[in-house]
Amino acid sequence: MENNLRRKLENGGHVFGTFAELGGANSVEALGNTGLDFVVIDNEHNPAEAESAADMIRACEKSGMTPLCRVREISRPAILKLLDVGAGGIIVPCIETIDQVRRVVEYAKYAPIGKRGFCGTRKDGWGTAYPATMGFEDQMAYWNRETLLIPQCETVGCLESIEEITAIEGVDGIMIGPFDLSISMGIPGQFDDPVFKAAIDRILRACKAAGKYAMVFTPTTANVKAYYEQGFDIICYNLDAAVLIDAYRRIVAEVSEA
Question: What DSSP assignment string belongs to the chain?
Answer without folding.
Answer: ---HHHHHHHTT--EEEEEE-S-SHHHHHHHTTTT-SEEEEESSSSS--HHHHHHHHHHHHHHT-EEEEE-SSSSHHHHHHHHHTT-SEEEE-----HHHHHHHHHHHS-TTT--PPP---GGGGGGTSTTTTS-HHHHHHHHHHHSEEEEEE-SHHHHHTHHHHHTSTT--EEEE-HHHHHHHTT-TT-TT-HHHHHHHHHHHHHHHHHT-EEEEEES-GGGHHHHHHHT-SEEEEEEHHHHHHHHHHHHHHHHHH-
